[in-house]
Amino acid sequence: MRLNQNAAPGGGGGAGVPDFDSDPKKKNEAAGKLAGEVRTQTVKASNHADEATNTAVSTFSGWGTAAGLKKVQKVWESQVKTLTGRLDKESANLRTTRRLIQNNDFELYNDFAPLRKPSGLDNT
After folding, report:
1. Residue 68, SS3?
2. Which residue in 41, 26, 52 sits closest to 80, CA to CA?
3. pLDDT digit of tens for each residue in the chain (124 aa)?
4. What does the radius of gyration of the chain's CA atoms come to, in whole angstroms?
5. Under a CB-based contact definition with an 8 Å cutoff, are residues 38 and 84 in contact?
6. Which helix (H) or strand (E) holds 80?
7. For the residues of 9-62, what is the DSSP string, one character each?
8. Do residues 39 and 48 make contact, with C-beta atoms less than 8 angstroms apart?
9. Distance between CA 79 and CA 91 in Å, rounded?
């Protein structure tokens, strides 16, 4: 009996299509990209914007525009800090998820080990 009356996407889990797939290597790769390349490029873009804003602030010194730009720059820096913190957190969460799923897979494998048929390779 199906509780969900909609057709299963891709034929459902019983049709040879997995309902859930987790690739530890891909999760680790994604975490590395977030913590490395994406974070680095974010900080680089932020620094470039800071340099341009500092130039504009000094060009407009003595005007109300300079004060406005300084205020905008503080907000920008706060947003960049929030974003880089989020990237760090997401990277750590991906790595944690990878470990949890992998550990769960090992536990399930070990739970079913007594049901496994012996092989000639077991004691070699």
Report:
1. helix
2. 41
3. 445 555 555 554 445 555 666 788 888 898 999 999 999 999 999 999 999 999 999 999 999 999 999 999 999 999 999 999 999 999 999 999 989 988 988 898 888 888 877 777 766 5
4. 26
5. no
6. helix 64-112
7. GGG-GGGT--S----HHHHHHHHHHIIIIIHHHHHHHHHHHHHHHHHHHHHTTT
8. no
9. 18
26-36 tens-digit pLDDT:
888 989 999 99
Give the pair of three-digit tokens for residue 98: 């990878």
**Residue 114 gets which letter from DSSP?**
G
Rounded Cα–Cα distance for residues 93 and 88 (Å): 9
| pLDDT tens-place string over residues 4-24 | 555 555 554 445 555 666 788
Q: Which amino acid is at 78?
A: S
**Residue in the block written with tokens 């406005």:** 68
What does the alpha-carbon distance between residue 64 and residue 53 come to, in Å, rounded to a whole number?
A: 14
Give dist(CA 64, CA 112) in Å, integer.
72
Residue type, 29: E
